[in-house]
Amino acid sequence: MTPTGITGGTSIPLTVGGSLTAEELLRYPQLSGYTVLQLPANIQLSALQTALEGQLAFSAVGSNGALQYATGIQDAGVLDDLYYYPGKLGVVFRHRDDREWHDWADDDNCDAKVKLWAPTAQSVSLLIFDHELDTSPAATIPMHEHNGVWVADGNPDWKDKYYLYSVKVWVPSDAAVETNVTSDPYSVDIALNGTKSRITTWNPMKPSPRARTRMPRLRCGASAT
Predict the structure, then answer these.
(1) Sign (positive/negative) of CA torsion 15, 21, 24, 26?
(2) Do residues 58 and 70 lie in contact, with contact meaning Cβ atoms separated by under 8 Å?
(3) Average of pLDDT values for 196-208?
(4) Helix (H) or strand (E) holding 19
(5) 149 within 8 A of 186, measured Cβ to Cβ
(6) Distance between CA atoms of 118 and 107, rounded to whole angstroms?
(7) Do residues 120 and 52 lie in contact, with contact meaning Cβ atoms separated by under 8 Å?
(8) CA–CA distances in Å: residue 217 to residues 210, 214, 220, 223
(9) Hey, how many other C-beta atoms are within 10 angstroms of the C-beta on 162?
(10) Do 108 and 201 form a contact (C-beta atoms < 8 A)?
(11) Domain boundaries, the chain
């Protein structure tokens, strides 16, 4: 956005009309009384999805061609509408004789997937590390996307490996497309200080010995921060 309007990108014309439904007003009560603007009826869903992967901005221009107003757009609502996903995320497992995917596994004889909900990402890669302190990945696996969920297919050899995501995404605070390397927000096991996520098989019905270990007592006079 510039003082004279929005430059670059692709323009999508909006028209005034319609009203918010009772359900929409319940979700977004702060929009009560505002003018409703509608997308073109013939817009392709793919075009809207592509737009959501970059910067979105809105401008109003008067009949004289002068800029009246310009602002960014909050897109949380449309992301929920288009990309709602009720399934399991993070590391999921499936035994060879089972059709269902779970976020736990009884043993090592199972397939594995890593799943990330990131509908605004332009691309995502899974970085696999052999050890917690490794600085270079042993493997870089491009993830494939379906309806906002990025997936990498794995195998039993991934057990006890560490991983990170490399995500190419528009970052509003930096006003640029950047590649961020991050741990998994859906981790059930993670390295010290959260530097990497860990692929761990576990069973909620069979806690590990570590889970049953009692925490040491603080010595008299010690303090915790």
Answers:
(1) positive
(2) yes
(3) 72
(4) none
(5) no
(6) 29
(7) yes
(8) 17, 9, 9, 11
(9) 24
(10) yes
(11) 15-82, 90-209
Under the banding of pLDDT at 50, 70 and 90, the label for residue 213 is: low
How many whole angstroms separate alpha carbon 129 and alpha carbon 136?
A: 7
| Pairing mode of beta strands 176-182, 149-153 | unpaired
Strand partners, 59: 70
pLDDT digits (tens, 9 = 90+) for 130-148: 999 999 999 999 999 999 9
* Residue 98 token pair: 């089972």
Q: What is the DSSP string of 98-141?
A: ----BS--SSS-EEEEEEEE-TT-SEEEEEEESSTT-SS-SEEE
SS3 content of the chain, % helix, strand, coil (to 5): 15, 30, 50
Tokens standing for 169? 């995404």
User: If you compute the radius of gyration of the chain from its CA atoms, what whole number of angstroms results?
Assistant: 23
The contacts of residue 109 (CB under 8 Å, 6+ apart) are 95, 96, 156
- How far CA 95 is from CA of 13, 91, 187, 225, in Å, comes to 50, 14, 20, 43
CA distances for 111 relative to 16, 123, 205, angstroms: 51, 24, 20
Architecture of domain 90-209: Sandwich (2.60)
Q: Cβ-count burial of 176 within 10 angstroms (0-12 exposed, 13-18 middle, 19+ buried)?
A: exposed
Q: Is residue 95 within 8 Å of residue 105, measured between CB atoms?
A: yes
pLDDT of amino acid 6: 78
